[in-house]
Amino acid sequence: MALSSRTGRDRAVIRVKPAPEPADFDARVRQPGLEYLRKHSKATTRELPPHWRRCLDDLHTAYRGICAYVCIYVDKATGARTTEHFVCRSDPERGRELAYEWSNFRLACSLMNSRKGIFDTVLDPFEVKDGWFVIDFSALKLFPNPELDPDVSRQVQATIARLRLNDKVCRDARAFYYDAYILGDVSFRYLRRVCPFVALEMERQNLVRHADRAP
Question: How far apart are CA 121 and CA 74, in angstroms?
């Protein structure tokens, strides 16, 4: 298949493997947060001190700077990286107890964080299975794998819709890195590091130069 042709579909892998909690996380984030909750049992979620920001560098390092939702590198200086609470702080059942838990944090760019918001219709990147998402390189759009169980397919589609992963902003972002590789501006090794979702799909769809293919 010619490198200049964005044709065909294949499976995408966007699952994020949970990283271990940093050694000093409990002392820097969890305990100060729990202490505040003990002393201010009636405080609203908007009043919670943002101790989770203290581990943002750890989160960025642990997940190699890749946004859990759009799967593109979030630059420390310009990328507006955030600590996203998968179970939002306003959740009436678990929001407060998980507000200062590493296991509830996802590295996200501010755009994805704001789009996910308080909604619970977005699949957890920690729980997504290989092959649930499909990418069409003719338009760089995402789709549910047609072989999925109908219930899972609906969840995948709901995630795409809620995060607007097929809007022009996201498609342009994927196209930027795809085109940079096609034009020879960046190496495939670099593409893997900054846009692993697209890199993996290119490998699977035979869109990678022969010299860059895994042995």
Answer: 23
Spatial distance between the Cα atoms of 10 and 16, rounded to a whole number of angstroms: 19
Which helix (DSSP H) or strand (DSSP E) does residue 144 occupy? Answer: strand 141-144
Distance from C-alpha of 122 to C-alpha of 117, rounded to nearest angstrom? 10
Strands (DSSP E) found in 14-66 = none
Q: Is 108 helix (H, G, I), strand (E, B) or coil?
A: strand
DSSP 8-state code for residue 72: S
Q: How many CA atoms lie within 13 A of 207 on its CB side?
A: 25
Among the residues of 40-187, which ranges form H helices? 56-62, 110-116, 150-163, 168-182
| CB 33 within 8 Å of CB 49 | yes
Q: Which residues of the chain have pLDDT under 70?
A: 1-14, 215
Query: Which pLDDT tens digit goes with each residue over 62-104?
Result: 999 999 999 999 999 888 999 999 999 999 889 999 999 999 9
Domain boundaries, given as residue ranges, for the chain: 9-16+128-209, 25-116
